[in-house]
Amino acid sequence: MNAVDDREPCCAAGSFRSARVTVRLGRPAPWGKRPHVRHFTRLTLGYHGSRPGIQPRTVTLPLWN
Fold first, then answer.
1. Beta 16-19 vs 2-5: how paired, if at all?
2. What are phi and psi of 12, to 5 degrees?
3. How far apart are CA 3 and CA 22, in angstroms?
4. Are 43 and 22 in contact (CB under 8 A)?
5. Is 2:45 a contact under the CB 8 Å cutoff?
6. pLDDT value of position 56
7. Least buried of 19, 25, 36, 63, by fewest C-beta within 10 Å?
């Protein structure tokens, strides 16, 4: 489940709406001073059925480098 602020009437006064999602982690990369340790650098959420507010069907976010 993922919760998103519907921003109605504005961000501060909005309500959080929940929706089912598939979470995918991708783009593994070496981690700084420990190159033998790898970490994921991208997170993708795929919404199932209805989604909160104006969220697109798929959301991709960068993770730390």
1. antiparallel
2. -70, -30
3. 13
4. no
5. yes
6. 87
7. 36
pTM attached to this predicted model: 0.74
Of 41, 40, 51, 36, nearest to 2 by C-alpha is: 51
The pLDDT tens digits of the residues spanning 2-52 come to 888 877 888 888 888 888 999 999 999 999 889 999 999 999 999 988 777
Residues 6+ apart with CB under 8 A from 38: 28, 29, 30, 31
Helix or strand run (H / E) with residue 11? none
Q: If you compute the radius of gyration of the chain from its CA atoms, what whole number of angstroms results?
A: 15
Q: What is the dihedral of CA 48, 50, 23, 54, to 10 degrees?
A: 140
